[in-house]
Every structure is written in structure tokens, then in C-alpha cells.
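User: Before I run my own analysis I want an independent prediction to cross-check against. Here's the chain; please return only the C-alpha cells and, at the end, one sentence I can use as a sanity check.
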Amino acid sequence: MLAAALAGVLAWRGRHAASSRPEAAVVSLAAAPPARDAVQGGPVAGRAHLPPSLSGTAPDGSLVVDESGRLAVTRETRRFFDYYLAAEDGPGRARARLAAETRRRLPDGAVPEAIGLLDRYLAYRRRARAAIQVPDTTARLDLLHALRERTLGPEASRAFFADEEATERAALERARIFADPSLDVAERERRAAALEDGLPEPVRAARAEALAPLRAMQEEARMRAGGTSSVEIRALRERSFGTEAADRLEELDRQRAAWQQRIDDYRAAREVVEQNPSLDAAARARAIEALRAERFTAEERLRIPVLDGVERVGR
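Assistant: C-alpha cells:
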């Protein structure tokens, strides 16, 4: 339960921190000039043509230009393309929608380059379907890498896929390391750690963030097992997640403790009923059901038989 709670707090923190997250270092965000937005209805009206599958969502990624006004090809460019190409109303319509959105967002001089890259990316996606059928081996990665460079060009291929390729190759190598019977546990761990250190920084940062709830849970469990005080647990949470998140976790602790106390009180009363020799099986069942109705809401009562079953299995 702690892992789920920590994950929920992290998601909450991420949503509230999004507005303060620094943008990528680019010379210019490629937003359409105000006059163009006014003519075409602005950002909100310009998105009115989205299909139902994208309704209520916000565009992912971004389009940016460099100081000379040329398209700056980054991983965010691919994310922007993928967002619009995820529409479920056919590739032709998705391409037309994306081309229109590109014209709306970019200066005129950067539009042909962006749409040319889009068409090469679409060609790559079509051709990659055959390669994806190959098992997850180094040969498959080599095939995709060659296809990407040939179709997109070396620069766009690196921008779009370098981090992904590095992660996939590291995963294959990690599997090979742990399957090697000639390596002892210490050597396997050493080589696996070296692989992790060699990943691109954005990948390592993302993996560290994804593992943060699990690591915090493990550290907290270790501290509690060692008798660490609630003050020190609070300090760990503040260091890991911030003050507001630590407050939310403490409130979850209180809710769980209150629930557990109710369960313990119910079980003590149930035990008295079960040990009453004057009651037959039917009377005991009615008495226990009455206990549940008295102590829990209708929704909570759905959980009690399951918890009772788990308790009896654990005895």
C-alpha cells in the first residue's frame, strides 16, 4: 500500500510542478505569430478539428527553431509528431492534421523542412513494421538503426532514437550478463551497474524518477524495522518528496491506522462470537453479519470477507 501511496503522491507532485519545469534550451519556441492565430481562431479554436480519440488532451512534445529560423530537430519533435499520429481516424487524416498544425506553429521558412521530416518519419514508420517482427535481438536493433539513418538521416535519427536505442541495447546486454554462468553474483552486479552508468543522462534521470517510490518505500521499511522515530520518517519523506507530499503521506498513515484499528476491533468481537458455545453455525454467521453491518459501510463490507479469508490463510 505504501508503494501505491508514494506513487500517487509523486504523480500529484508532478502535476503541480509541471508549470515550473524549465523548457529545453532553445532559441525560440515555435509558436504561431499572434496575427496568424487571430486569423485561424487561436490555439483553442485551432484544435477544434481534433478527433474524439484526442479530445480533452494536450499536445505532447514541441516544435522549435534555432537562431537562424531553421527547425531544430529534437526528441520533442518526434513526441509532437507521435501525438497527432496517434489519432484513430486514419494515417491520411492524421498527416493532414499534423501538417496544418505545423504550419500554424512554425515560421514560414521552417515549414517545408518540418513537413519533409514528417513525411520521412511516416515512411520510416511504414518500413519499420517488418523489422519490428524480428525478435528483440542485436540484429533487430541494427536493422532498425540502419533503417532510421537511411530514411530520416543521421541527425534526425540520433535526435529521435538515440536514447531509445541505448536503453534497448543496455537491456539486451544486461540479460546476457545475468545469463552468463561464468560470472559470479558480484561481477554480474558490477557489470550491470556499469551499463546503467553508461546510459544517456535523460534516460538515467527518468529511470531514477520512476524508481523513486520503490526506493523510498524500501528505505522507509528499513528505517521502521530498525525502530526509527516518526520524526526521522517525516524527515526522510520531506527530503524525498517535499513538505506538502509528506503531509499527504502522513494523512494516509492516519487513515490506514484508523482503518486497521476498526478491523482489529471487529476481529476481537468476531472472535467472541466464534467462541460462544451457545451458538450454532447459522447463529454465529448471523451474529458476524450483524457485526459487519454495525461497524462498516455497505462499500466497506465488500472488503471484509476477503480480509477475513486472508487472515485465516495466514494463521
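Sanity check: The first strand starts at residue 28 and ends at 29.
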